[in-house]
């Protein structure tokens, strides 16, 4: 395999399973200086050893982080900055879905916190590194479920109403909006932000191993034989992160290496800007509560 990523610094969340692990393996084999983010020390260290053995690349390390806690995400970003003075590729891939909407430790609905606010906090905490690294790329994992999302800035962050799948769909809509506003804020730099949908993939995906309920468990079981492998699901991710062909893409929602049109709400520029402003405030409030000893 070509060593075209030697000298490139890559940071990826959700790299201990599924498409994240498949992408991390590819990055490692191509020579990247790679950092994986994981929640479980035991599991992350096991995957780290596997990546080094599979690739022969020793320039791989890990960051332990609870992505449901924004103060911990910020701490992990600061730890990364202490180790690296550039960031060529940031992959926001970690995510979860739950049987029902669940309150997280920061006082936000957990699906929204993990699948959107963690992306936002990590990216913005590393934004100056991305801006100064020539041709830097941010790739975020969305989903075709974004089409079913309905974002209400006043309610979504803390609402426990509705179903787990609806909360997941809305968080994936937020990924598209975040990507579009991030790209707007990257104007004047060489950095690019895009998101993609991996399709239905055979992974251990779920909410910290949570049961998804009888109906969803049945759907996943029936769909499994027709689902893509993690390697197939990671194809657009790797392509967006590394391919020269993807260079012209900026602020796009991608499916199978091609820009696709997301749902109508995802194209609302004002909503995207307002979501950014709200996310800044929510992350700051969460960090402030921790600093004040109230969380």
SSE diagram, text form:
Layout: E1 9-13, H1 18-29, E2 33-38, H2 41-55, E3 60-64, H3 70-83, E4 89-92, H4 110-125, H5 127-132, E5 137-141, H6 164-185, E6 192-197, H7 214-223, H8 230-233, H9 235-242, E7 253-255, E8 258-260, H10 269-291
Parallel strand pairs: 1-2, 1-4, 2-3, 4-5, 5-6, 6-7
Antiparallel strand pairs: 7-8
Helix pairs in contact: 1-2, 3-4, 4-6, 6-10
Task: Describe the fold and architecture.
InterPro entries: NAD(P)-bd_dom_sf, SDR_fam. This is Short-chain dehydrogenase/reductase. GO terms for molecular function: oxidoreductase activity. Keywords: Oxidoreductase. The protein has about 300 residues and is of the alpha/beta class. It has a single domain (about 10-290), classed as Rossmann fold (3-Layer(aba) Sandwich), CATH 3.40.50.720. The chain is built from ten helices and eight strands. It has helices spanning about 20-30, 40-55, 70-85, 110-125, 125-130, 165-185, 215-225, 230-235, 235-240, 270-290; strands at about 10-15, 35-40, 60-65, 90, 135-140, 190-195, 255, 260. It has an eight-stranded mixed beta sheet with strand order 3-2-1-4-5-6-7-8, sandwiched between helices. β7 and β8 form a beta hairpin. α6 (about 165-185) crosses α10. Mean pLDDT is about 90; it is low at about 205-210.
